[in-house]
Amino acid sequence: MEMIGRLALAAALGSVIGLERERLLWAAGLRTHMLVCVGACLFMLVSAFGFGDILGHDRVVLDPSRVAAQVVSGIGFLGAGTILLRGEVVRGLTTAASLWAVAAIGLAAGGGLYVAALTATGLVFGILAGMKPIEERWRDRSQSRALRIVARAGCLTLDTVQAVSGQPLSRIKRFVVQPGAVENSEEVRIAFARLSSEHLAEIARRLREQPDVTSVEIEDR
């Protein structure tokens, strides 16, 4: 009954983390996290109780803890399957880390460390659900954003953009000028670093009010 209780606890704790990942439609969702947690718990039970009948024999040297230790490295193949490279952006690292953490929770539940397993579940869930809005807000402010401007040739310079935008020159990451499709016009691409979408929209509005500017578009990054 003790073993059944530990396996059931591991399934319940794994489901808490899995539901958070399932909410975001990741490949490793509810069932994957539950299976990882239950599997790690079973490995821990095997490590703790599976070799009791031979440990007392003479000339038998055995370290059951090595079974649990292999879970730490063996869970890596599942984590690697959730990591994707899309262009220059790596996705899935958080889900891979959650699988690794769930395996540790399963080992703790299998070893009877109930307080540690419950506390770790609460912390992991809080990190995944509670810290995401803060992370997204910070990422939104720190990522590079760009404008595509069509204007009369020679009217836009770095000093002009700085005066209109109110941003220091250090925020301007890239300033590229190319001949426009219309005679006596040019196409300017300006990339700003560490600028929120609200500030970029305000800069675009100010640039549109300039008499020599034909169009201003916000480019998707």
TrEMBL record:
Location of the protein in the cell: Cell inner membrane; Cell membrane
Species this protein is from: Methylobacterium oxalidis
Annotated membrane topology: Multi-pass membrane protein
Keyword DNA repair belongs to the record: no
GO cellular component assignments: plasma membrane
A single BP term in Gene Ontology: methylation
Record Pfam families: MgtC
A Gene Ontology molecular function term of the record: methyltransferase activity
Record family assignment: Belongs to the MgtC/SapB family.
Segments forming domain MgtC/SapB/SrpB/YhiD N-terminal: 7-136
Name assigned to this protein: Protein MgtC
Regions crossing the membrane: 34-55, 67-85, 97-129
